[in-house]
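User: For my dataset I need records formatted as: sequence, then structure tokens, nothing else. Please produce one.
Assistant:
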Amino acid sequence: MSTPQTPTAAPTLGHSLKHLAVHLLTPLLMCLGMALAYQGAFHQPEPNHLKVAVVGSGPQAQGLAQTIQGKAGDALDVRTVADRPAAEQLLRDRALVGAFVPDARNPELIVAKGNSDTSVVAATAVFTNVTDRQGVPLHVTDLTTPAEGDPTGQGLFFLLVALSIGSYASVAVIGAAGAGLSMRIRALAGLAVSLVVSVIGIATAGPLFHVVDHDRAAIWALGWLYSAGIVLIGIGLHSFLKKWTTLALMVLFVMLNFTTSGGIYRPELQNDFFGALHGFWTGAGFLEGARSILYFDGGAGLGGHVLTLVVWLLLGGAALVAAAMYEGRGRRAVETPVEAEEEMEEAVAV
């Protein structure tokens, strides 16, 4: 004779609505964060201490530089450079966006589009206004050669996007599906998946789309450093944040990362907040490092950009140590299968 089963009580309407509201909180916060970050960074690009120069050492060049600076205010930082070779070297060092060579018949603007195509557009507009008043056309000379598959120089930004999404989405999988593994095993899994992410990135950006047409090993190494930093930080944070990890990584590596990387607009076309983050955020470290390798022969501050990526990787190591200590004290919360599945679906969806 079978034992009668006690039916499980159906959840009340209030309980169901509360459960729904809690789960809607994350996407709504993502929506708010993305709106604030992307619109705050990109809605009104305008020069902000855009570094340009007038080539020449005489009174005429100095007077022109002072006139342009006086009209532009904080939008421009205008200087004079003694001669063309000095101006070209400053452009290769990425210390200038444009250098204007005055001439009554054939004025020229020297630029390096590999630094930032949008910044060059802004500099060209400034000096086109000067030559329009002279009634002569402005000739623009680019010192850099774009990659075959990346004529605007922005393909590297989309490589950054691919590396970022592959990295932070993997964190939820490792943290949820690998919840029963030790921190050491999860860390090794993170390094392995970041290697795979970096290989996928260089394989698509290199031989497939020709965004990276030389020095592929160096760009791959930067990509692995970048991806590993994100993954290790994420694994460490997951021990503390659980289902909120995806939101935290979205803030760190999408909202604040893509907007400050310099992929669309560099700091000279952004407000001071996003421009300041560009100096030490990990996405800028990867993107500017890749530009230095591809367009400036490994110079133009490459060492500083690599250091930025190394620091973020060390932060990931510190996060892992803190998480291991936290879990070692028996504070590791175990997610239910439903929570783990929801977290992985959420990470992959975004």
